[in-house]
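lol ok so funny story. i was supposed to be doing the assay writeup but got distracted and ended up predicting the structure for this chain instead. priorities right. anyway since i did it might as well share w the group, maybe its usefull for someone
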Amino acid sequence: PGAGAILGLTASALTAIGSGVIGGHLIGRHFNLGVDGGAASTTDLMARWTARLMAPVVAGSLFTLHGALGGGPGGIAITMTILIMANHPILLALLIGASVATMAVVGDLFQSFLKRYFKVKDAGSILPGHGGVLDRIDSFLGATPVYFLLLLAFGLL
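and the output, tada:
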């Protein structure tokens, strides 16, 4: 593919992964105001169950099922939309979207694991209060290679 196609695919990867990250933060923040005592926004059973921490040893109180349920569908939906608009099969778009959403979470958790392992609070000081630049791109580092490898594996690139 030409430079335009590569640029378009890169932009689509960043958009798809970014939408999942944003969805996770928005839903996670909205519902996880009271994680230690259950969901603060509602008292129903589902909200209490999804307020559970996904990886407390690795990421402390930052990863909840609420965040995953907000980010996963967002990333899948945008990835599917981009691939379907490019005339790719729906099931293939769903497979790639689900893989990208999953690897975004894995990238984020891996970076959190590294920070805990090396006892570092922030991965840099360029973005104070945000954990550093690496905290802003960890999901992209986990998901982007998978996105492009799947595109290559299925002959879409």
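Confidence is low (pLDDT under 50) at residues 33-43. The two ends are 7 Å apart (CA to CA).
back to the writeup now i swear
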